[in-house]
Every structure is written in C-alpha cells, then in structure tokens.
Amino acid sequence: MSAAIQALLALIEALLPKLLSGADSALIQTILNALVQVVPVIIQEATDLIPYIKNIIASLSANSATTTEQLATLQALDKQADDAFEAAAAAQGFPAPSGSAA
Fold first, then answer.
1. Quick check: 37 and 65 in contact, CB under 8 A?
2. What is the pLDDT of residues 53-68, one digit of tens each?
3. Would you kindly state where each structural domain of the chain is located, as residue ranges?
4. Each residue of 73-94: pLDDT tens digit?
5. How far, in Å, CA of 54 to CA of 47, rounded?
C-alpha cells in the first residue's frame, strides 16, 4: 500500500504546477479530499513501524560492542522515534503520555 500512496503523492506533486495554474476551488477541494483520506493512513503506517525501530535501537544499545558514540546516536534516534510517535498520536487526537511536556 505504501508504494501506491507514494506514487499518488508523487503524481499530485508533479502535476501541481499545471493543475494550480488554472485551478478553481473545486479542483483544490478534490486534491484536499484526497489528502484528507491518505494522511491518516500514512501516519498509521509510520507509527506501525516505530516498535520495530525501537526494538532494533534497544538491541543495539544493549550490545557490548556498541561504542559510546554509537550509543549517543542510538539514544538520539530513540528520542526522535518517541517524538514522532507522540506527534502522530497528537495529530490523531490522542492525549500526550503522562509525564510528557507536550
């Protein structure tokens, strides 16, 4: 499904200059309606991958061969994954987790 969504978004993006040069509000609404339908799917797909990413980060972090520099990078990636997940949840109307500054 992600390949289809990516192709659709690439097509819309490529056609935007031509479409919008003579666009009326109906055409803009059609594009907007498509975005309204695909954005939640895209967000869900991305959030579905976060646990896998976090498991990889945890495994690498626990490995004794991981250097201090690599561990710092992994911690930054872990925070980035957490932030992305929380932002996606907030965009869908879910409350911030307890203890979150958001």
1. no
2. 889 899 999 998 899 9
3. 2-91
4. 999 999 988 888 788 778 777 6
5. 11
51-73: burial string, b at 16+ Cβ within 10 Å, e else: eeeeeebeeeeeeeeeeeeeeee
Distance CA 34, CA 40 (A): 11
CA nearest neighbour of 101 among 86, 91, 88: 86
- Supply 91's token pair: 């965009």
Contact 82, 38 (CB under 8 A): no
CB-facing half-sphere around the CA of 86: CA atoms within 13 A: 14
Q: Which residues of 3-94 form beta strands (DSSP E)?
A: none
